[in-house]
Write a structure and sequence with these properties.
Strand order of the largest sheet: 1-2
Distance between the termini: 25 Å
Oligomer: single chain
Number of domains: 1
Order of helices and strands: EEHH
């Protein structure tokens, strides 16, 4: 069915940002606590900065600083720039 989204299936990549899994690492525990690793590479662009970039874009849209089809400029060669470039290509945020 066109347009129908089944449970657990999305048509919007931005819905996959965050909610990344946690991995228990008992081999690094020494009896003082639990060690968990947040697997941010499960984000759509495999970047820890997907959450940050999505928040920045949504805030800019909400505050009318970024219009649909507008241009995103970020002076970086790091993960934030990669995430912003990915988001710029997503129709849900563009």
């Amino acid at each position: 069915m066109a347009g129908h989204v089944y449970p657990g299936i999305t048509e919007d990549l931005t819905e996959l940002v965050g909610d990344t899994p946690l991995l228990h690492l008992p081999q690094f525990e020494s009896g003082y606590g639990t060690v968990l690793a947040k697997l941010e590479f499960f984000n759509p662009s495999s970047s820890v900065k997907d959450r940050t970039a999505l928040s920045m874009v949504r805030a800019a849209e909400r505050d009318a600083r970024l219009a649909k089809g507008g241009t995103i400029v970020e002076a970086t060669s790091g993960n934030t720039g990669i995430s912003l470039a990915w988001l710029g290509g997503c129709s849900a945020t563009a």
